[in-house]
Inverse folding.
């Protein structure tokens, strides 16, 4: 089967439109999910069930929506600085545990809408018993 140059251009154009449409749809779906989550957070703030005052709850809901729309992770140097800023006030073992939690070790649960994110890490210490 012979395909002319104009037919090849037309097929290429159709493929580009299809790919562009698919990418637009996935971006729209992500945006819609972020908007739905934001709407839920706002409703939670308005219900008065949040453990935060209304202004703080709304600010957190907006920040969560913005972060969801960015879909990126901070560069390693920024992550390291954020960990240092958050854990810098701790001393000794508490500081090490804080850094481990911020690096994703342990268990994380909760949400902004629920009043906060709880990060937990269990550190097992063993000692040798003298014979």
């Amino acid at each position: 089967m012979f395909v002319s140059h104009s037919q090849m251009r037309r097929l290429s154009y159709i493929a580009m439109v299809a790919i562009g449409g698919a990418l637009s749809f996935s971006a729209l779906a992500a945006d819609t999910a972020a908007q739905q989550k934001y709407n839920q957070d706002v409703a939670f703030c308005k219900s008065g069930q949040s453990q935060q005052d209304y202004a703080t709850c709304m600010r957190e809901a907006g920040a969560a929506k913005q972060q969801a729309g960015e879909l990126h992770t901070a560069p390693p140097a920024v992550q390291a600085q954020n960990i240092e800023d958050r854990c810098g006030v701790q001393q000794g073992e508490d500081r090490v545990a804080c850094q481990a939690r911020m690096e994703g070790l342990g268990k994380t649960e909760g949400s902004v809408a629920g009043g906060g994110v709880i990060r937990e890490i269990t550190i097992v210490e063993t000692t040798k018993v003298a014979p």
